[in-house]
Each structure stands twice: as C-alpha cells, then as structure tokens.
Design brief:
The chain is 70% helix and 0% strand. It contains 15 helices and no strands. It has helices spanning 22-33, 38-51, 57-70, 73-81, 88-100, 104-116, 125-136, 139-152, 158-170, 174-182, 189-201, 205-214, 220-232, 236-248, 255-274. The longest helix has 20 residues, at 255-274. Keywords: Repeat.
Length: 275
C-alpha cells in the first residue's frame, strides 16, 4: 500500500516548570534536537541525569522523539518506565516509538494502560493508536477506541476520521469505512486516496476505480496509489492506461510512479516472452 494518511504532529508537553532552569533546558533541547542517533543522545541524557532534572517532561519528550526517529524501542522503554506519572504527551511520544518501529500491539497495550491510569486521550494520540490498530488488523481494539472518540467528542477531527476510515478499510469493513468518509464535511483527496488504497489492498479494483473517479482534484499521490494498486492486482495494461491519463491531465509523476510503471512494463514484457 503506497499511501498512509499523516497523523498530526505531536506537540511538546506544555507544563509549568522551574523558571530558573529555562535557559539550561533550552540549550539541552537544542543539543538533543541535533542528535542523529541514540549514541549521540546518550551522553547528553547521562549529563541530565547527573546534573539536571531527569524527569523534565520537555527533555523526556525530546529523548523519546529521538528514539522514534531511530526506532529504538529498548532505550525508549527504559526512559518511559523510569518516568513517574507520565502525562498524555509522553504516552503519545512513547507510543509513536512503538508504532514507528512496527510494535503495533505494544503500542495498543500501552494506550489502554494509559486509559486505565485515568489519563484522557486527545486528538494527537487517537490517530496514532488507530494507525497501530489498522496496521495490526486489530478491529476489536479499534472499535473500542472509536467508542471513546464518540464519547470524547473527537469524531469531527479530520485526522481522527481519516484514521478511523483507514482502520475499517484495512480490516475489510468497507461499510463502516464508507460511513466514516461519507460523514466527512468535505471528501478531500487524502481521505479518498486512503479509501482507494484499502479497496486495492483487498483486490476490489472496480470499487477502487469508482471511488477514484469521484475525486475531483487528484494529486500525484492519488494517481500513484491507484497505478501501484493496479499493478499489484495484475492489471498491467490498465495501470499503463491510467499513467497515460495522468500525463494528459498534466500531473507530474514522482519516483514511485515511475517504478510502478516500469514494473508494469517489465511484467508485460515477461508475459510476451512467455508466449
């Protein structure tokens, strides 16, 4: 599947802090933000533990974001387990590490642990954990989170809606996915592309093309998702036909589009040789 709807950027924990440490904290945050690996961040973290406030939520948040970029579950787990009373921001940052590293079920379990700790979810953590549910095909957990979304009044949030639709689509529950997208005030190209990709992932080419034709303004991501899906479903000629249509529409292909088209050409060539 080519396309994945983006989640909202996670915001840092806006908490009251010691004003006297503000300058030092900013310097440490600046150093951490420049770190490209855990090996670079570890000495700074050690310095913080020895000389500063090891439980500063801003510092912990930035450390967890480094772990997310580096897919370092082990280091992130140590940080999180040693954090007293983590708030929703730190839970979000830790779950992001798990999800970005492919530990979807661990991310889902961590979310429900947060709920047990009576910490209310927000519109940042919900799309993240819905992404985990969709990737893990964990429909049951996703449905529970959907109920929480309704109770918390978060169903109007665009990111939440798109991730709900993606969850149901990935799990093959297309009636529920269709209901979510139909309830959106505006059916934008991102939501439609996610729906199209889910149809193609399940081999429903006709339904995918029906949805594709409803999209008024198609970007190169939308075109590429359809071309890729057609290739994956063995529709090589259809994929090349759509590529020509894309060019006629004046939409510039990206690198992924070109790879998909070359794959279609290669497979058609192999079929001709086989004959």
């Amino acid at each position: 599947m080519i396309v994945a709807a983006a989640s909202p950027p996670i915001s840092p924990p806006y908490l009251n802090s010691n004003p006297g440490s503000f300058g030092d904290r900013n310097q440490l945050l600046f150093k951490l933000q420049k770190c490209k690996s855990i090996q670079h961040a570890a000495p700074i973290h050690a310095h913080i533990i020895k000389n500063g406030n090891p439980n500063d939520p801003f510092i912990l948040f930035e450390l967890l974001r480094i772990c997310s970029r580096c897919c370092s579950i082990e280091y992130a787990s140590k940080i999180f387990q040693q954090t007293p009373d983590p708030n929703v921001f730190l839970y979000t940052a830790f779950i992001e590490v798990l999800v970005s590293s492919g530990a979807y079920f661990d991310g889902i379990r961590t979310y429900f642990q947060m709920i047990k700790d009576f910490i209310l979810p927000d519109n940042y953590i919900i799309p993240l954990v819905l992404k985990a549910c969709g990737s893990a095909l964990d429909l049951k957990s996703g449905e529970q989170i959907h109920c929480q979304v309704m109770k918390l009044g978060l169903s109007s949030d665009r990111f939440v809606r798109v991730k709900l639709m993606e969850l149901y689509g990935k799990c093959g529950e297309f009636n529920d996915a269709k209901k979510v997208i139909d309830e959106m005030p505006q059916r934008d190209v991102v939501a439609s592309t996610v729906m199209i990709s889910c149809y193609l992932d399940h081999g429903l080419v006709s339904k995918a093309m029906d949805e594709f034709r409803l999209v008024s303004t198609k970007d190169n991501v939308c075109w590429t998702a359809v071309i890729d899906g057609l290739v994956r479903n063995g529709e090589m000629n259809y994929a090349l036909e759509l590529f020509r249509e894309m060019q006629m529409a004046g939409v510039k292909p990206n690198e992924v589009t070109v790879v998909c088209v070359l794959s279609a050409c290669a497979q058609l060539g192999a079929l001709e040789l086989g004959k």
